[in-house]
Amino acid sequence: MNIILFGPPGAGKGTQAQKLSKEFGIPQVSTGDILRANVKEGTPLGLAAKSYMDKGALVPDDVLIGIIKERLIQKDCKGGFLLDGYPRTIPQAQALDKILTEIEKPVECVINIVVPEKDLVERISGRWMSACGASYHIQFNPPKKAGVCDVCGDQLYQRTDDTAEAVTQRLKAYQSQTAPLVDYYQKKGILKDVDGTKDIDVVFGEIKKLVHKFK
Ligand code: AP5
Ligand code: ZN
């Protein structure tokens, strides 16, 4: 089962990907997480990506296509995967189609998590992250103990690109470079909209229903 979780910054792709990954036993492939891990380790890739990310701009396509090519051929992706944050441009989607044709695993469905812009800013500014990948919201999804991850017990932190300026740029990048993919996948007949303004568990239930229809 190969699924793309699609939507603007803050729509809830990461939150839903974590839950779906557990439910279906397939890995979450988040290009944002892969890039952040590289930034943290100070790899050449991370050093190159950081300046784009902190500004809220997209990292160049050739970098992302390289990352995804390498990731999808790994063993744990054999039974399927959940893409979170990729593709974000038409060239990235075309490259993905090519890679998946080669490994004979086409994308089965694209879940478009729809949330209006005013809610996105509120969500992103209240987000707190854990090193283990879990994410929380100060108001909508608080951890059991303030500032501490329920899963791993680490201290929570805020992302360096969750500043007001970077968020504005991320939303702009979404509108100009990523939103055209809605049409791209609609034409393929595999795009399904989900109302992302509902509670996290309600959205999860809706996505599960849609995914089961494709199985
Ligand atoms: P990335 O990490 O992918 O960030 P993003 O797309 O901006 O998305 P977010 O992680 O901000 O949001 P999300 O949809 O996962 O929401 P979440 O579940 O956390 O990318 C970061 C950067 O890396 C990019 O700007 C770019 O520079 C680079 N990059 C990555 N991939 C790239 C690519 N393919 N090409 C080029 N560059 C790339 O939820 C947000 C908050 O809302 C949380 O606090 C959560 O608890 C809360 N929440 C979630 N669901 C709900 C709900 N239903 N109700 C209330 N609150 C909710
Ligand atoms: Zn954790």
Topology, please?
Blueprint: E1 2-6, H1 13-24, E2 28-30, H2 31-41, H3 44-55, H4 61-72, E3 81-84, H5 90-102, E4 109-114, H6 117-125, E5 127-129, E6 135-137, H7 164-178, H8 180-188, E7 191-195, H9 200-214
Parallel strand pairs: 1-3, 1-4, 2-3, 4-7
Antiparallel strand pairs: 5-6
Helix pairs in contact: 1-9, 2-3, 4-5, 6-7
Zinc ion is lined by residues 130, 132, 134, 149, 151-152, 154.
Report on this structure.
The structure is a single chain. By secondary structure, this protein is an alpha/beta fold. The protein has one domain (2-178, 190-214): P-loop containing nucleotide triphosphate hydrolases (Rossmann fold, 3-Layer(aba) Sandwich), CATH 3.40.50.300. It contains nine helices and seven strands. The protein has helices spanning 13-24, 31-41, 44-55, 61-72, 90-102, 117-125, 164-178, 180-188, 200-214; strands at 2-6, 28-30, 81-84, 109-114, 127-129, 135-137, 191-195. The strands form two sheets. It has a five-stranded parallel sheet with strand order 2-3-1-4-7. It has a two-stranded antiparallel sheet with strand order 5-6. A hairpin with a 5-residue loop joins strand 5 and strand 6. Helix 1 crosses helix 9 (200-214), helix 2 (31-41) crosses helix 3 and helix 6 (117-125) crosses helix 7. The longest helix is centred in the C-terminal third of the chain and has 15 residues, at 164-178. The chain is globular, with a radius of gyration of 16 Å. The N and C termini lie close together (7 Å). The model has no long low-confidence stretch (mean pLDDT 95). Zinc ion binds at residues 130, 132, 134, 149, 151-152, 154. ATP binds at residues 10-15, 127, 135-136, 198. AMP binds at residues 31, 36, 57-59, 85-88, 92, 159, 170. Monomer. Pathway: Purine metabolism; AMP biosynthesis via salvage pathway; AMP from ADP: step 1/1. GO terms for molecular function: AMP kinase activity; ATP binding.
